[in-house]
Amino acid sequence: MAHKMSQGEHARLLPTTEKGLPEHEEFTPEKQARRRFRANKPFYPRSIYFNRQASKDGIRHFVDGMGDLNPLFRDEEYAKKSKYGSIISPGCYLFTIQWVAPGFGGAGIHGWYSGGEWEWYRPIFAGDEFTVVCALRELEEKHGEMGKGRTWIDWGESMYSNQRGEIVGKEKGWAVMAERATSGSAGKYRNTPRPTYTREDWVKFLDMYDDEEIRGTESRYWEDVQVGDKVGPMIKGPLSVRDEIAWLMGAGSPFFRAHKIEYQYESRHPKTLEYVEETGDADVPELVHILDCFARTIGVERAYDYGCQRMSWLCNLFTNWMGDDGFLWKMRGDLRVFNQIGDITVFEGKVTRKYIEEGKCCVDIEAWAKNQRDEWSMRPNPATVILPSKEYGPVVYPNPSPKLMEEIKRARPLDDLIREGLI
Questions:
Q1: Which of 12, 183, 316, 324 has the smallest set of CB atoms within 10 Å of its CB?
Q2: Each residue of 319-374: pLDDT tens digit?
C-alpha cells in the first residue's frame, strides 16, 4: 500500500504550542555539521527548477517580469537582423533554470538570497536546453543584527550547460540565514515607514523611465569608452505586489505549489512552513514577498523583493548600456537593505578600467543601487563587459576555467550521492 500523507510526520500535523503553532526550528551544531559535510560535492539536482528550455515565450515572460523592453529579447524580426540571428536572453534568465543550489539553508531556518558572483561564457539562444550541476560551498557563521547574533552565510554554486555541451554560465551565490524566531524578535527592519510620493516625485520617476537608454543596434565600441564614463541611471519601482507577481510569472517560484502537489511536498519537508502568529496562518515562507504579515514574522515591516529579482535588474542595467553586440562576462551583486513594497531602486555605475585580455576587449564597471532613503540597496561591486572593437573586431567570448570543466565532469545524480551516504 502506498504511503499515506496522514500517517507519520507532516507539516500540517506537527505538535503545536499553547498558541496553536509549531515551535520554530534552531540551526543546531548537528545541523551545521551536516550542512558542511555536504559541501563541494557536485551533483545533478532531482529536477529542473522551472524552465528546462529558453523558449521565445519563456524569455519574453522573464523580461516582462522585470520591465525590460530590449527588443533583442522579445522581437523576433528585430533579433533576426542581429549578429545572433534569433532572439537571445539576458544572462540572468538562467535563474529560471535553477535559482540556487538545492540544499541551501536548513530545515525551518529562514534564508535570504543576498548576492552572487556570475560569470557567463556564451549567449543564450531561444531554443537552447540546459542541464545544471550544483554544489554547496562554505557555511560561515556571522553575528548579524537580523538574527540576534545567530546568523550564517550559506554559499552555493550553480553551473549551466546547453545541449551543445557548452558551459554557458555559473553563479556562486550566498544566502543570509537566521532562525525565524530570533529574526522575528530582533525586528531590525520593523517600523520602516512606507514611503509616500508627491506629484513632483512621480514626474521625476516617469521622466527617468522615459530617459532610460537601451543602446540596441548602435554599437558601443571599446575605443569609444573612457574611464569615468557613467552607466545609467535606471529606475525600478515604486515596488508593488503587482511587480512581485509579474516577476514570478516569468522567473518561476521556489515554493509556490498547488493542492496535492503542495501537500506531498510538505510531507517530504515537514519543517518547511512559516507560522504567522498574528493571523494563525501556516504557509510557505515565500509569502514574505507577497503578504506583509509573513514578512513581519521574520522581522521585516512589509513584503519585499526577491534577491534574484534585484540581481536581474542589475543585469538589465548592463545589457541596456552595452548594446546588442556587447557581452556581459562577469557581474557581482551584494544586496543590502530590504527593498520593501513602496521603495524605489535606482541603478548607476561608472567605468573604472579598460584593457585587452587574451583578445577580449574588456571594460570594468563599478555599479550600485540606492533607494529613496539614500540607503545602499546594492553596494558598489565590479562587473566586466566585453565590447566589439573598431580595430580588433567583434566580441571574443571567454572560456570557462579547467577547474570548472572538471567539476562538471565529475558531477553525479543527487540521489546516488545520498544513497551512498556521500551527501
A1: 12
A2: 999 999 999 999 999 999 999 999 999 999 999 999 999 999 999 999 999 999 99
286: its cell numbers: 515565500
Q: Which residues pair with residue 378 across a beta bridge?
A: 335, 369
- State the pairing for strand pair 230-236/345-357: antiparallel
Closest CA to 389 of 364, 360, 350, 366: 360
The Cα–Cα gap between 9 and 248 comes to 30
- d(CA 283, CA 294) in angstroms, rounded, equals 9
Q: Which of 296, 250, 209 is nearest to 59 (CA)?
A: 250
Element housing 161 (H / E)? strand 151-162
Q: Contact at 8 Å (CB) between 59 and 73? A: yes
Q: How far apart are CA 116 and CA 170, in angstroms?
A: 10
CA distances from 149 to 33, 111, 144, 145 (A): 19, 15, 5, 6
Please give the Cα distance from 365 to 75 (Å, whole number): 28
Q: Compute the distance between CA of residue 245 and CA of residue 258 in angstroms, rounded to an integer.
A: 16
Cα–Cα distances in angstroms (integers) from residue 205 to residues 86, 197, 220, in the given order: 33, 10, 27
pLDDT in tens, 271-310: 888 888 888 888 998 999 999 999 998 889 999 999 999 9
Retrieve residue 289's grid coordinates.
514577498
Query: Going by C-beta distance under 8 Å and a sequence separation of 6 or more, which residues neighbour residue 155?
Result: 136, 137, 138, 139, 140, 172, 173, 174
70/72 Cα distance (integer angstroms): 5
Rounded Cα distance between 331 and 93, Å, is 14
Q: Which three cell numbers stand for residue 20?
A: 496553536
- What residue ranges define each of the domains in the chain, with the CATH number in brackets? 1-188+241-303 (3.10.129.10), 219-239+320-398 (3.10.129.10)
- CB contact set of 292 (below 8 Å; sequence gap of 6+): 301, 302, 303, 341
3-class SS at 321? Answer: helix
**Cβ-contact 209, 235 below 8 angstroms:** yes
